[in-house]
Amino acid sequence: MSKFRHVSHVIFDMDGLILDTEPLYTKAIQNVVSKYGKNFTWDVKLNMMGLHRIEGSKYIVDKLDLPITWEEYDADVQEQYKVVVTNPELLPGARNLIQHLAKQNVPIAVATSSSLDSFELKTAKHKELFKLFDHIVCGGTDPAVKNGKPAPDIFLVAATRFPDKPSPDKCLVFEDAPNGVQAAVSAGMQVVMVPDENVPVEARKNATLVVNSLDKTPLEQFGLPPIK
C-alpha cells in the first residue's frame, strides 16, 4: 500500500523546477543590489523564492535596506531580467517527466509566479514542450491569483482551470521552493519537492516527498503511470 493519496492531475511550478532560471535570477538581482554595496546571499534568496513579483521586490528592498523604493528596485531588476534571464535550459528530468505524463494523457498544468511577458521570454526556445500543458497560470499578471505563494491561490486557480475541475486532493504539485511547497500544502495538495542542493533539510520538511530529479519521482505511489 502506498502511503500517498492517488491523484489524477499534476501541476508544475516553472522556475528552478522545469527551467534552470535561478542562477540567472541571482545574477540579475546581484547586478542591481551591488550598485548599493549589497550582496544577494543564499539566505535572502531562499526566503524570496516563489514569491509574487511585488512581494519579492518589497522583500529585497527591506531585507537589504536598499536606499530606493520597491518600485524603483522593481523597475531596475525587470530591465536586468530582460538582459540576463533569457533562453534558460531545461533542468534534468523535466522533459522526460512532462512528455511521459502527456503521453499517458494525465492532465498537466503550469502554475508560475512569473508574469505572462516573463513566461513568454523564458519559454521561447521550449515552445513545443510547453504546448503539452493543458493550461498555464501566470500568477504575476493573472487577476484570479489574488495572493502570491506561500498563499494557496495559484494552485487552486490552476486546479479549477482543468475542464473537469478536480478537487485539490486529486492534484499533485511539483515544486522546488519552500514558499511553493507551503502554497501547495495550504491548497490541500500533495507536493513533490525537487530542491536546490543548498536548501536546508529543515526547509524541506513540509513536502510530501523529496526527490533529486523530476523523473525520479515514484509516480506509481500516487496512482500515476510509472516512467518505464
From TrEMBL:
NCBIfam families: HAD-SF-IA-v3
GO molecular function: metal ion binding; pseudouridine 5'-phosphatase activity
Species whose genome carries this gene: Dendroctonus ponderosae (Mountain pine beetle)
Catalysis performed (reactions): psi-UMP + H2O = pseudouridine + phosphate
Lineage top rank: taxon: Eukaryota
Enzyme Commission number: 3.1.3.96
Protein name: pseudouridine 5'-phosphatase
Keywords: Hydrolase, Magnesium, Metal-binding
One Pfam family recorded for the sequence: Hydrolase
Co-factor requirement: Mg(2+)
